[in-house]
Specification:
Chain lengths: 417, 417
DNA sequence: TTTACTTAGTCAATTCGTTTGAATAATTCC
DNA sequence: GGAATTATTCAAACGAATTGACTAAGTAAA
């Protein structure tokens, strides 16, 4: 990115910064924003005027604090924008319609069993239309559609667009999900692995608002991870950073496990279908994540045994993240219930001190994700909103006009801000 | 960082972008730069005029290619700036004076044996003065001094400035090396762990110029790592990202090793003093890194055994980096000779395919660092230059005027560009 | 109650870096 | 030799943030 910048980009960025300041720190007065952004009050006044005209922010009552004239408070207009998020996995499809403030306005949930591409596509289009109509919107009033799938993703064979991991979805080889949906729905579609999406959601609406750099450990049907650095999601070169499930459990040695033919890796210890099967063999019928909650309440021995093993590996994983990435915090969330995730966190916290190398004083703090079981759906829904409103540094830089700019096909719309 | 920007910052950034374009892609004409940066020729012409006046770039001959008027070529002026780098470890101090083009103009090397803080400080001041006088410069003509130490670093107890890891330097508890030197020498001092510094050097002068995101595996007296993402060094929240030596070798289980009292971690397998001792017990007198080269030529069994063990762990480490960070490339370098590092890389490359989880198609490429044994010294020398010239996004953003801006004490000078 | 002071916000003029358009020079192609 | 092409500069225009003057609306002190 050796491109320069000019005053047009300056303004775009400042508009986003004002929006972001109100979003994160609001309600705020124009003078407050000026102080936070180091811009002049006059500039803020002009930018706020534009945001008001776009109906993205709204004026509240006047507030008097100390001496001087009372200030007019500004907050985001929740109805300023909508986005849709679809979280797809082999066993379910969850769809949400969220507004600019991150409120889930509508939710649709369907249980699935390894759908074919055609079935899933039809269902996703239907779900999207349902969500749009319930809010009495037209398709073009929605900022975009985010789709979450279990990682990792690969590039399509023609080099255009990402395709879903065929290992998680047998029969989905080389299906360019994003462009299919985009053609059907005529709105920008963002495909992302659900762990990363959950991280973006946490960054935008959760505790991540205040935390610059954190790693999100995502418990889904498998184990995933997402990384936010300096407020920006970090995707990696091939778009698969944070794929913690593939980390080897033993750093040296290449012994492949008899069972899967793959080298021993962390993911095996967090494979939910595998856990269900173990529990079933043990005489306990389990099919869904909700069933696990009941077992936890009953302190079921086999479940507790799994949790011991899982937290043991999780501790090592946390250490790897600490030493390699040194984040400010580590976030735990996903589709497992808060009760189970919380217990895992407790166990990790107990083990961790003894397993750190001596002399380390500061360590990243751990926190439970705020979004709950729909973290991924909410997360992918924030992708279009993030794209339009986030004050990312690249907003400031001129875009290459030339073709072949490296971005492989996932739609990036002309941003409105 | 919720600060805005204005046209003054725009210009600063564009100046750096022009400089960077010439540095990386040069020699370039004004029109070439305009095409690369997407700025207008007029703008480039103005900015180049300033860089010429600052003597940071120089005009070369005119070059005619195809039809049209011939263009004036622009290159960096090597004498436009100088910087000094000092690489300190328990066993040595290496100092280099480099120019803007990355040429090592002078080099000083001293063997040490766990110096006291006072001794080391005196020696570092002396070395700096020697290097400055050899080039017939005055202290204030040097852009700054970079100091590399083995990581990790900690914050000083008063919260101001980083201090050297007391584990690597017994008796160095809570010594604020950077501010001491800054007071003595009156130039900006940048303290950094040598692995990260080597990565910055590689990014600036080596193969990293073309690679946006890479991980640098540094073989020093121990094992270190540095991370460059989107062209920017990533430090982590406490400044200790990339501390790969501390990664647990076994993800689950908290068995501490009898020997050190610490949990088993990768660093133990790359501890040079420990290797020397093993070899000595084996009847082979070894004291320095150069001795190891001789043993490699002789295919010494004990050394080869170490290399097998080391590469075995290195492979696991590479996998962890691949899956967690998904970089474009991984760079191998440090103070071990290229011959040894090269052999380690060969062994890793042989083991790696069998140990990846099935289905992974693309993988980061591996390359040997370009800088050789002085990588760290050259790397720290680039820190002041990087600070002044690198087109980092934060250059575009207004700085907070208020005190307590979070930057803990390491001197950040007013940049000239 | 009056007066002084403080703070929020707007209007108008200024500043400054990039862009645009015109002009000039140097070279190749026909 | 003339037309086309490319590099570079000069001068004017554009558009963003800034600055300074001003109004409005409150608190604090006399």
């Amino acid at each position: 990115m050796l491109t320069g910048t000019n005053l047009v980009y300056t303004k775009k960025y400042n508009l986003r910064i004002v929006h972001e300041a109100i979003r994160v720190l609001g309600p705020l007065s124009r003078a407050d924003i000026a102080r936070h952004t180091e811009l002049s009050v006059q500039t803020i006044s002009n930018l706020v005027k534009e945001l008001l005209a776009l109906r993205l922010v709204q004026e509240g009552g006047r507030r008097t604090e100390g001496r001087g004239a009372p200030s007019t408070t500004l907050t985001l207009n929740p109805d300023g924008a909508y986005a849709i998020g679809l979280d797809l996995d082999r066993d379910h499809l969850t769809g949400v319609l969220v507004d600019l403030a991150g409120n889930v306005r509508h939710r649709v949930h369907v249980e699935l069993d390894s759908p074919s591409p055609a079935e899933a596509l039809a269902l996703m289009v239907e779900t999207t239309n349902t969500l749009v109509h319930r809010q009495k919107l037209r398709l073009n009033q929605v900022a975009g559609l985010g789709v979450g799938v279990p990682g990792p993703m690969h590039q399509a064979e023609n080099g255009k667009g990402y395709v879903v991991n065929p290992k998680a979805f047998p029969g989905w080889h080389n299906i360019p999900l994003a462009s299919w949906l985009q053609d059907q729905l005529g709105m920008p579609v963002y495909l992302e692995n659900n762990a990363m999406a959950a991280a973006v959601g946490e960054r935008w609406y959760g505790a991540g608002r205040q935390i610059d750099t954190f790693f999100y450990i995502y418990f889904g049907s498998g184990l995933g991870g997402g990384l936010v650095m300096h407020g920006q999601p970090y995707e990696g070169f091939t778009g698969n950073a944070g794929e913690i499930g593939y980390l080897p459990t033993i750093l040296a040695g290449d012994a492949t496990t008899r069972e899967t033919g793959d080298p021993p890796h962390v993911g095996l210890h967090f494979n939910m279908p595998r856990l269900y099967e173990t529990l079933r063999r043990d005489g306990t019928p389990v099919n869904t994540l909700e069933d696990l909650d009941g077992l936890l309440d009953a302190r079921h021995p086999a479940l507790l045994e799994w949790m011991d093993d899982a937290s043991d590996h999780l501790t090592g994983l946390v250490l790897a993240i600490e030493y390699l990435l040194d984040p400010e915090a580590i976030c735990f969330g996903g589709r497992l219930s808060s009760a189970i995730v919380g217990e895992l966190m407790d166990r990790v916290a107990r083990q961790l001190p003894a397993r750190r190398i001596g002399g380390k004083v500061t360590a990243p703090r751990h926190f439970l994700a705020t979004a709950g079981v729909d973290a991924a759906a909410l997360g992918v829904a924030t992708l279009p909103i993030y794209e339009i409103f986030a004050p990312a540094p690249q907003v400031l830089l001129k875009q290459r006009r030339s073709p072949g700019n490296g971005d492989p096909g996932v739609h990036r719309p002309v941003t409105s801000l």
